[in-house]
Amino acid sequence: CAxxxxxxxxxxxxxxxxxxxxxxxxxxxxxxxxxxALRERITSVKKTGKLTDAMRMVAxxxxxxxxxxxxxxxxxxxxxxxxxxxxxxKLKNSGLEAELPMLRVPEKVxxxxxxxxxxxxxxCGGYNTFAAKKLEARVASLxxxxxxxxxxxxxxxGKNKVPARLKKLKYNITGDWFGMPxxxxxxxxxxIADALRNLFLSGEVDKVEVVYGKxxxxxxxxxxxxxxxxxxxxxxEDPEDETFKLTTEDGKMKVEKEKVKSSKAKDLETDVIxxxxxxxxxxxxxxxxxxxxxxxxxYDAQASELSSRMTxxxxxxxNAEELAKKLNLLYNKKRQAYITNEICEISAGAAALDETGDxxxxxxxxxxxxxxxxxxxxxxxxxxxxxxxxPTGPDFPxxxxxxxx
Length: 405
Fold this sequence. Notes:
By secondary structure, the protein is of the alpha/beta class. The chain has helices at residues 2-15, 20-32, 36-90, 96-99, 127-144, 156-165, 186-201, 278-355, 371-384, 396-401, and strands spanning 112-117, 150-154, 172-178, 207-217, 220-229, 242-249, 252-259.
């Protein structure tokens, strides 16, 4: 009975569905038959591509924020420029430059202060490197003239970039350092403007320049060198002043730029009476104008930084997608080679059995047969003695001899 039950179970296992262990093993061979590290690397590259694409979209949203800040600051700057021009026009040929220190042009420039604007974070392509290169070229030019400039830095990256870039040049870094804010307000621009104005009015420098990234479009930013002190009473506005607007066209981002017309001098009545001397009024308005210029420069530099980050993240996303495709192709080739090798081994084993003259025992099973019909035939063969007590087959005695007792 025990033998019958064992053979009955063997018969059921042979004709029933594949056992779970065999099914699991087949799936494991198909999935994990190749390098596991390669699959993990493909997953990692795809996740990195998603991350860089998200950073690109965040940078685009911040560009719109910078755009909104420029639009909000524009009316005040235009009105202030118009009023200053009106006062200068009213007091023309009155020796105004001699009365206002911020308008006084020195006879000879012996000391120069340079404000360099960088970012607080990396992953923005060559934005900070280009600004450092522009600063290096300007400092080298001043050293050739015997001038050691004083440098003020905006942005954490500049604290490391500037000393490393200018290690062979002569310069002085002031104790003032300013962070590049994520959300630019007049408070930050006022702090920077006050530091520059104090440096200029104290006589430590005769001229103040600024190095920053000028925004042209989403794929082009150029480092710009610009003089901001002393101010010019006649050309008070920047001749290249313009506004930008980030829009979309056919699902792609684009920038619309608009040249800003020069503000006209405000017409003042001929019999206007000033409550305070005109030079006192202008002396209080010029710091406000300097503050508005610094604010405009910070917005421009932030737009340049964000556009550089968008470009860098777009390139990183494209590279991640391309690398994932190449790794997937390599993975599929390895998997195909592994499966082909398995098939070759199975075919070689079958061919080896054919060469030894293996003889099939018993009749072939029919797909239409059921468990009950097979069980009945099996029991009948046992009863009539058609099945031998011991297994027989090619070379079976030799196999038995090799088994230890």
